[in-house]
Amino acid sequence: MMANLTSFLPPLALRWAVLGAIGGGLMQLSPACADAEKAKEPEFNAIINVHDPNAIKAGKYYYVFSTGPEVMIRRSKDLVHWTYVGSAFPGGTPGWALKEIPGARSDSIWAPSISKVNGQYRLYYAVSRFGRNRSVIGLATNKTLDPDSKDYRWVDQGKVVESQTTDDFNAIDPAFCSLDDKRGVLSFGSYWSGIKAVQISVKTGKPPAGAKTLPIAQRPFPDALEGPEIVHIGAHYYLFVSFDTCCQGINSTYNIRVGRSTRWDGPYVDKDGVSLMQGGGTLLLATADREIGPGHCSVLADGSKRWLVYHFYDRDNNGIPTLQLRPLSIGKNGWPVLGSPLIPARP
């Protein structure tokens, strides 16, 4: 649709560059936060400076992966008190991605998506630069998420999906959804022409030969939506997306919308029957009280229980991006319903 939207999309140019805007940021942690991260202090210190959280249950722990230097990893036994336990890419951005995206740095690894498939943990991630759509999505695998295990080792599996400057989409913000024992789907996208999806082979973790990238959500120019997550519950596939702008502290306007379909590839429609390809999307969560600009959500499943996992900008803590979870259920009308926040305000 557009060869280059950089001049029209200041929010993308600001993506993750939140230090100046919110007094804390991802590209450089505040001294107090940096000390807390290094010391692996638990509880409240570990829920700040969290962007694009994606969670999974493994053994007795819940794990959250998030955008940040080398992809940050935190874990918890109760979803409330969290501890920083390291990063997925301690050596920095994988070499192949550096060649593909010149100028990428350790903080250019964005929006991780963690899942367990065929007995291994799979971590999808994006590498890009602010305001550009020359982007790649990669895959790393691990036998375990326990950093104390002798088997703990992230192995990079290379490129999965990419976008060129000549494409009308941006291959960032990946999210994996399992379809059956042979197929999955990877949704992704940010601005440009919106949200895309491509079928994934469960065996390889990558698209099979000939797989087509399909559009599933779009808004009118400048197409301010990103951070998709497809979740299969009952008879429907639910597509969660973030509308509007992130990364501007208390001036952020992110909000979470949802649509549903009986097929993973759509069409997705909102409560009013408006297609998400036509700008539709039922509002699920917006700014309220101290939670400014909630967005880039994922859905954590643990048996029959589900939680919406997301970040927000804390009005009462200098707008620092902060982790939050809410119980998620499907109401009698077939649409998602959220409960109250699990993590209390910082003391």
Major sheet size, sense and barrel closure: 4 strands, antiparallel
Number of extended strands: 20
How helical, in percent, are the residues? under 10%
Number of helices: 4
Query: What proportion strand?
Result: 35-45%
Spatial strand order of the main sheet = 1-2-3-4
Shape: globular
Order of helices and strands: HHHEEEEHEEEEEEEEEEEEEEEE
Rg measurement, Å: 18 Å
Poorly predicted spans: 1-41
Distance between the termini: 48 Å
Q: Overall pLDDT, averaged?
A: 88
The structural class is: mainly beta
What do these coordinates show?
Helix content is 7%, strand content 41%. Residues 1-41 have low confidence and may be disordered. The chain is built from four helices and 20 strands. Strand 13 (225-233) and strand 14 form a beta hairpin. The strands form five sheets. The protein has a four-stranded antiparallel β-sheet, with no helix packed on it. A four-stranded antiparallel β-sheet has the order 5-6-7-8. It has a four-stranded antiparallel β-sheet with strand order 9-10-11-12, with no helix packed on it.
What's the helix and strand layout?
Blueprint: H1 10-13, H2 19-22, H3 31-39, E1 51-58, E2 61-67, E3 72-76, E4 83-87, H4 95-100, E5 109-117, E6 120-127, E7 135-142, E8 155-163, E9 175-178, E10 183-188, E11 195-201, E12 214-217, E13 225-233, E14 236-243, E15 255-261, E16 282-285, E17 291-302, E18 305-314, E19 321-330, E20 336-338
Kindly list the characteristics that best describe this protein.
347 residues, mainly beta, 4 helices, 7% helix, disordered N terminus
